[in-house]
Amino acid sequence: MNTILYVQNLKCGGCANTITKNIAAIDHVSNVSVTVDESSIAFDCDTPETVQLVKDKLKVLGYPEDGTANTLGSKAKSYVSCAIGKMN
Length: 88
Known about the structure:
Elements: E1 2-6, H1 13-24, E2 30-35, E3 40-44, H2 48-61, H3 72-87
Antiparallel strand pairs: 1-3, 2-3
Helix pairs in contact: 1-2, 1-3
């Protein structure tokens, strides 16, 4: 199933690199595409449980789903994830 999620704190290509690398590493996830301008992540997966795994991973990385709590901790994590993505 094709899924599109909208997230918070997505700022640049570094963020996109980190998100793509980490989401593509989840079993049964393929065709990961990040659109910075829309703060969206599109991917294919096979079950709703996999979608939840992606949402959970995004939150851990500092990119919570749009409409959910965006804490100071999430914002800080996104800066770190961004920096790591720029280095890779």
